[in-house]
Amino acid sequence: MTEAEQYMRRAIELAEKGRHRVMPNPLVGCVLVRDEEIVAEGWHDHLGGLHAEQMAIADAESKGISTRGATAYVTLEPCNHFGRTPPCTESLLWAGVEKIVIGAMDPNPTVRGGGCGSLDKNGVEVSHGLLREECEKQMAEFIHWCKERRPLVTLKASTDMEGRVDGPQDQPSERFSSEEAMSRAHQMRADSMAILVGVGTIVRDDPSLTVRGPIISPRDPPVRVVLDPNNRIPPNSGVMLDDQAPTLLVQSSSFDDSSDGDHVRRVVIPGPKMEVLTILEMLGDMGIQALLVEGGVETWNIFLDSGLVDRVRTCTSNASLESGGKKFDTDMTRYGMNRVSEEDVGGDTVCWWE
């Protein structure tokens, strides 16, 4: 590994410190290097906070270190526009950075190349593409949304050792995943901007569909999306009564919403069948970059059959539910996916497919 790659890899590590808290912004890390030594570090820590380059410059200032003539290694092309913070290009020019090495170019076609162009025009040496694939993987949701204008879709499915997802319908639902696997599931929720289920899951389990564990503030909590074409949702269900997160009901026609709380919104996709692409385009128009599809079996199958699922996480428990419940085949090769990892999580087998 070259020294330059070591610097960029450190920037990638730093970017992870903002995980769960920066959406819809991407994870970004930055290091400042002088005389072949990292002298300052920064990352985008939370939504509305300093960008990675600005934090690195502030870090140098706090140490009394001059940034004149430094080289900046940053995982994403610096922004050149005003948003929640001033342009990072202006901060880098003010700091006297002499050279900048970029991992990934900004995927947004309206601003792509603007940061590099501004820096180059002002005499800063610019290069890009160092560890590009690793940088892009870290900000995959942001890149996917910028290019496709719809969310990157992750499907999460859990079964018992025989492939059952539930016990008999005339009995209360039973949790069978390990505590460790459940903790991972909440991390997945924290990495999402929306969590989607079919109305059958609400009727059967009455889940809260909120993030418990990881700290995501000050960003907004994930939107709870319920596919409910025929208005079967119980008015006393958790997603209808509590306002911990917004609730979006996707329905096939208009229904009475006079008793809905302020956190509930209804949208209509007319027709007998809800097309997955239409749903995703609607969510993309709302700025949703990362969608987690949680269930149930019918919803999983509809999304998988559409060919629009980007990755799947399956969790197979070592527990065994009583026979009579629904089953789900967790072998994703039939959808053209490959298993990219497998690990034991609290006794459960967790696999990722892409």
Order of helices and strands: HEEHEHEHEHHEHEHEHEEHEHEEE
- Residue share in β-strands: 15-25%
Question: How are the strands ordered across the major sheet?
Answer: 10-9-8-7-11-6-12-14-13
Class by SSE composition = alpha/beta
Number of domains: 2
Question: Low-confidence segments, ≥5 residues, pLDDT <50?
Answer: none
Mean pLDDT: 94
Distance between the termini: 27 Å
In DSSP terms (H or I, runs of 4 or more residues), the helix count works out at 11
CATH topology of the largest domain: Dihydrofolate Reductase, subunit A
Q: Got a strand count? A: 14
In CATH terms, the superfamily of the largest domain is Dihydrofolate Reductase, subunit A
Largest sheet: 9 strands, mixed
Q: Can you give the helix content as a percent range? A: 25-40%
Give the second-level CATH assignment, the architecture of the largest domain.
3-Layer(aba) Sandwich
Q: Tell me the overall shape.
A: elongated
At the first level of CATH, the class of the largest domain is: Alpha Beta
C-alpha Rg (nearest Å): 23 Å
Can you summarize this structure?
The chain has helices spanning 3-15, 52-62, 88-95, 114-121, 132-138, 140-148, 179-190, 199-205, 238-241, 276-285, 297-306; strands spanning 29-34, 37-43, 71-76, 99-104, 125-128, 152-159, 194-198, 223-227, 247-251, 264-268, 290-295, 311-316, 339-345, 348-353. It has 354 residues and is of the alpha/beta class.
